[in-house]
Amino acid sequence: KAAMKSLRFICAEALVSNAAFARRSLGSVAHNLFPLLFKASYLLERGEVIHDLVENWPLVDLNMGKLLGKTADYQEDLSHRTCVVCLESCLTGLRDYVLHPPSPYLKRLKVVDLTGIKDVEVQFCECKKPMGRWARTQLLSKLCLELLLHAQGVQRGPGAAEISIDVLVDLFVTERNYELVVQALLTRRSCPLKIHCVALRADNLALQKFFYIVKLMDPSLLRKLEVVHNVRLEMEHLQILFSRTRFPLLASLTLPARTFNVRRLTAADELVLSAVGEKLSEMTHLTELSMAFSILTGRIRKLLSPLKTPLKVLDVSNCSLNHADMAYLANSLHSNHLEVLDLSGHNIPDLYPATFFKLLCHSSSVLRSLILEECNIQDNHVNMLILGLSPCRKLQEFKFLGNPLSSEALKHLFRFFCELPMLKNVEFPVPKDCYPIGTTYPIDDANLCNFDRQKYDGVAEELKRILLQGNKEGVKASTPLFGSYDAAVEETNNELGTYLMKSFKETLEKFTNSLKELS
């Protein structure tokens, strides 16, 4: 359903549709109309108009989230459109604002906030080409260095030295753009555009380089830190990071796989683990924590009990939790506040069904997203699962890929889904009766696609028909075999693939050399 447009917005669209006329007319446009024209230009992908609007921006701040979000004149939220034409035009317009400053009394821009941009799977812009977070990091860093080089070679005009704009941004740093980002951060004091990192994602980066980036970017402003995949951060490194650096505003922390491994802890390691827990407790804004694919057996209490603020988001998927861990979670202060919970990779029905349902009961009044992938949920567990989910009236998302459920069990579940008033997204497994008899769970990658696709398509259609009959046509139901879409991984998959091939080659060489030494 198309969002309604005010007469003002329709007029703004008409103006920016004629790019040449709009650009000539900007000098006579009232300042309070610039945000309206910006959103209209963004909707119509008028890159040249966006560039000129930003280059001549007359207001104190330029906040992308507010400009593109729901407004009185046009209710549709455009912040999920990461259109390369629009975003490139916006950032180059910002550079040219500095290079060609307006007369002194109009130089008002002090803050540019780029953090409201959301990366999504499907682009609705005409060009269909997104500019992801990594590319935005790359371009902004490049433009900052361009400004510095220009300042060194050109005599600046009156008023130019006064320009100082704080740019709030979510940075995404990998090995490939590391040097450029470092140079931009090192020269921040001299550059008119001052990069202020509000969220950092680090991937495919040597540990030393990760520490250096954190040091350069002023961690006191950081609200979100994602350290993922190919950053080999282990427990002792985490303690060093926390002991050297304060993160007073950090609200969200994602740690890479195997950060923790408590299977062979020494007494010294236990002290390190306790120290990490204490440091986490000093982060009074921390409400989101992801520790997926670590081994945390029996140590969840030690890590989470010092926290003074209840967690709203917790990802402990594939963390080898035992009954004591689940009992702690079910009875902790966090249980009544959890809005997003990921317990994938745990055999919930066999190991701790009662404790899990107690946790679900405590969080039911606020729970928005529940992920139970590869949890060995079978047909005989469906009625119990429905009983546990029934109080979760705010549940918007339920993902349960990789569970051995039949077509009939899935139909039963989908009839129940029609009773959840706020449900929007379901990720369900390929029915086990679509796989060859004897297929064992969890299914390995080699056999994941070895199922009867025609039969699956028939079941999927029937499940969607159940939703339609239950007036749930707005619910998205899908089976992403290799996991949900991740914009950051999608954007950098070529670099990560190269890294993995290199790592595999190095491991193979070490193994071959070891065999040679033995022989």
UniProtKB/TrEMBL annotation:
Keywords attached to this Swiss-Prot or TrEMBL record, sorted alphabetically, are: Leucine-rich repeat, Repeat
Which intervals of the chain form a coiled coil? Answer: none
Does Repeat count among this protein's keywords?
yes
Gene3D superfamilies xrefs:
Ribonuclease Inhibitor (3.80.10.10)
* InterPro entries in the record: LRR_dom_sf, LRRC14/PRAME
Q: Which GO terms describe its cellular component?
A: cytoplasm
Question: Record keywords: Repeat included?
Answer: yes
Q: Which family does it belong to?
A: Belongs to the PRAME family. LRRC14 subfamily.
- For this entry, the protein name equals Leucine-rich repeat-containing protein 14B
Q: Which organism is it from?
A: Tinamus guttatus (White-throated tinamou)
Provide the taxonomic classification: Eukaryota, Metazoa, Chordata, Craniata, Vertebrata
